[in-house]
Structure formats: structure tokens, C-alpha cells
Write a structure and sequence with these properties.
Length: 193
């Protein structure tokens, strides 16, 4: 599967979430503090993967099916594994901040913001990653952003926590560049090769 195909697929999914997922608070997805439950039979959830690299980095593969079938705000596995995994090599404050930012595993966008510029983890970090709108732009390198938050100094560089000086620089990137050859028409990325 080519990068362009993956980006086209992501753009299609995000467009569906924007069209069908708005609530009265102008935020995409369920709104904290409590979990929401969809009416029985209204959908069949196959995969819960809003944030690429999060499940892959924190969860044991054998636990993916539990997360895939869980409500985003009632995941029995992911929230605890974010913290327990991170505590193996980072500070407690870093682990708790990552847990607060990355759980629940949903993509949020604050439509009340006076901007149309998406910024991966922007909503969750109060705009520290670019804009408070949140969501995800086509050229956001979500894997490197996620890996930077987990293994790098992204959280301290954004001023969210003090630096714990326990970074693992060789794990902060997937070393895959995005060619940024977007188009002006939907799905906004080049056709697969």
C-alpha cells in the first residue's frame, strides 16, 4: 500500500468523521467526562485506530482486539498501557501527560475555533502543536509527532512538562518523508502508484 493511497484513505475517513461526527459542542466525537454508548446495532466497529502509532507503541498485539471492540472512552486496555509502558523509561509526569493527551483514542477538532488549519494533537495540547482546532492536516507527520511525544522531547519542547532528559532519539522518527504533493480536489492526494 503506497503512502499516497494511505493518505487518500485517511482523508476519506476524516471527511466522513467531519460530516457525520459533529455534536452540539462543536467538537468531533464524544465529549468527556462520561462515556457514551451507541444504540445497539447502529454500527459495527471493526477497528479503533484514531491515532496511528498509539496502539502499536503501547499495546501488546494480543490486546488490540479488546481495544478494537471497546468504546473510545471505556477502553479497558489502552489507557493503562500508555502509562505503564511509558513509566518503564520516562518520568511519572511524562507518563501521566501522555496518558492525558493520547487517551481516549479519538480524533478531536474544536469547530468553534477561528481557524481552518488542522493541527495533530492541537486540541489535546491547547494549541501547543500549531492550532487549537485539532484534527489532522494531510501533511501532519502523525507518526513522527507521536514518536516524538513518546520517545523524544516533544512534550517539554511544547512547554507542557519539564524535560525528564530520558529521551531515546533513535526512536523519534520512522524516517519516512511525506512528499506533500497534494492536489486541489478530493481526496487531495496523488493517486496510488
Amino acid at each position: 500500500m503506497t503512502l499516497q493511497f494511505k493518505l487518500g484513505l485517511i482523508a476519506t475517513i476524516l471527511a466522513g468523521a467531519i460530516i457525520g461526527g459533529c455534536n452540539s459542542n462543536n467538537v468531533l466525537g464524544p465529549t468527556p467526562p462520561g462515556p457514551t454508548t451507541a444504540p445497539a446495532g447502529s454500527f459495527k466497529q471493526i477497528e479503533l485506530l484514531s491515532r496511528p502509532a498509539v496502539k502499536e507503541a503501547f499495546e501488546l498485539f494480543e490486546d488490540h482486539n479488546k481495544t478494537n471492540r471497546a468504546e473510545p472512552y471505556a477502553d479497558p486496555v489502552l489507557q493503562g498501557q500508555i502509562k505503564s509502558f511509558t513509566l518503564m523509561f520516562r518520568s511519572k509526569q511524562n507518563a501521566e501527560t501522555l496518558q492525558a493527551i493520547l487517551y481516549p483514542n479519538v480524533m478531536k477538532a474544536d469547530l468553534s475555533q477561528d481557524t481552518t488549519t488542522a493541527s495533530y494533537l492541537g486540541y489535546e495540547t491547547g494549541g501547543a502543536t500549531g492550532s487549537k482546532w485539532g484534527g489532522r492536516a494531510l501533511d501532519d507527520d502523525v507518526i513522527d509527532i507521536s514518536l516524538g511525544a513518546i520517545f523524544g522531547n516533544t512534550l517539554s519542547a511544547l512547554g507542557l512538562i519539564p524535560d525528564d532528559h530520558k529521551e531515546v532519539p533513535c526512536l523519534t522518527t520512522d524516517n519516512v518523508a511525506y512528499d506533500k504533493s497534494n492536489t486541489d480536489t478530493f481526496p487531495y492526494v496523488q493517486a496510488p502508484l
